[in-house]
Design a protein that fits this description.
2 domains, globular, binds pyridoxal-5'-phosphate, alpha/beta
Length: about 375
């Protein structure tokens, strides 16, 4: 097959949608204004921010006043976790999370241990699923906060958040979910999920980078992470990213509109890709076979290194990742792959293809053909491979 360019790393960041760009453009060119000022140009900016907030709230079944704009998913996770510890720390010092969280959650949790908090990290099964029974067992009288992600960024597994959050609710413990990989990709409704806090990030669904939001259910009181001029109703200071939030809202609205069609297509392409990739010997799929993001194709190839695979794929015009982008460059295999029980040497051979809605069958076949060739080539060079 002829060389072609295929971007298959949408879970790391997604291309800006046309809808997002069109919504941002006026605020980067002929319009400006600090939404906190009182002249008419500024009032337009305020109006735009509030419309974006209402649209975003609407797409996850929240009220506009429950949406707080942040600088992205990382800030939203940090805020939810650190401020909950601060707010509820007098009631208890125990928090619960899972073994497959993004570093924005796991490192925030870890940072609390130096302040005398104790963290229970729930295990997952071989598909990356947290068991509701394990959560129930881990809850103690001094548990003050639970954070479990909705959809995993490396293997695509979707957690039974409704069930998990229901358990938290029964014990009166605030429940946060990192929904960065889910919002804009699968239906998300905060009431159905029964969550108290939810993080999202614009650049994972076709919006610009550097903007995100934390949903905080009405009545849940956590202090600000950022102090300053009292923006976002006193809970998150800093001049609003007007263009950013407009782009985020437009991207999300569009993603939700096209979701049924896009997901049917992604499922079809993923199935086709899995079928072809699993024909390569000593290869296994990672993540849950059904409860998974439709665009995530995650596999491990025995006897070779994920990083080498990624570099050779790049020379063929394909952008993909091994483990998560944040851990690339380190020699430790992904904590997610270790948590699902893969031995170190197998976890090292991981590849994640996160597909975008515009991917074609030809793209998928090109990926499969290229990977087959790359894996074969690396194995013949591998000291671990005996043929
Ligand atoms: C990308 C990602 C984040 C971080 O979001 P940023 O907006 O890049 O800070 C957090 N959690 C998950 C699951 C992610 O995939």
């Amino acid at each position: 097959m002829q060389k072609r360019f295929v971007y298959a790393d949408n879970a790391a960041t997604s291309p800006l949608s046309k809808e997002a760009f069109d919504a941002m453009k006026p605020w980067l060119t002929e319009k400006w204004g600090n939404p906190s000022s009182i002249y008419s140009a500024a009032r337009d900016a305020r109006k735009a921010v509030e419309m974006a907030r209402a649209d975003i709230a609407d797409s996850i079944g929240a009220k506009p006043e429950e949406i707080y704009f942040t600088s992205g998913g990382t800030e939203a996770d940090n805020w939810a976790i650190k401020s909950s510890a601060k707010a509820f720390g007098k009631k208890g010092r125990h928090l619960i999370t899972s073994a497959i969280e993004h570093h924005a959650v796991s490192s925030s949790m870890e940072s609390l241990t130096s302040e005398g908090f104790e963290i229970t990290v729930l295990p997952v099964d071989k598909y990356g699923m947290v068991s509701p029974a394990d959560l129930e067992k881990a809850i103690r009288p001094d548990t003050i906060f639970i954070s479990i992600m909705l959809a995993n960024n490396e293997i695509g597994t979707i957690q039974p958040i409704e069930e998990l959050a229901e358990i938290a609710k029964k014990h009166n413990i605030p429940f946060h979910t990192d929904a960065v990989q889910a919002v804009g990709h699968i239906p998300v409704n905060v009431d159905e999920l029964k969550v108290d806090m939810l993080s999202m990030s614009s650049h994972k669904f076709g919006g610009p980078q550097g903007v995100g939001a934390l949903y905080i259910r009405k009545g849940v009181r956590i202090p600000p992470l950022m102090h300053g001029g009292g923006h976002e109703r006193g809970r998150r200071s800093g001049t609003e990213n007007v263009a950013g939030v407009c782009g985020m809202a437009a991207a999300l609205k569009h993603a939700v509109e096209i979701m049924p069609e896009a997901n049917a297509h992604l499922k079809h392409i993923s199935d086709r890709l899995f079928d072809k990739l699993l024909q390569i010997p000593y290869t296994q799929a990672t993540g849950h076979p059904e409860k998974r993001l439709p665009g995530t194709v995650s596999v491990v190839f025995n006897y070779i290194e994920g990083e080498s695979i990624i570099l050779l794929l790049d020379s063929k015009g394909i952008s993909a990742s091994s483990g998560s982008a944040c851990t690339s460059g380190s020699l430790d295999p992904s904590h997610v792959l270790l948590a699902i029980g893969l031995p170190h040497e197998v976890a090292h051979g991981s590849v994640r293809l996160s597909l975008g809605k515009d991917i074609t069958e030809e793209d998928a076949d090109y990926i499969a053909e290229s990977l087959t060739e790359v894996v074969d080539r690396l194995r013949t060079m591998s000291p671990l491979w005996k043929g």
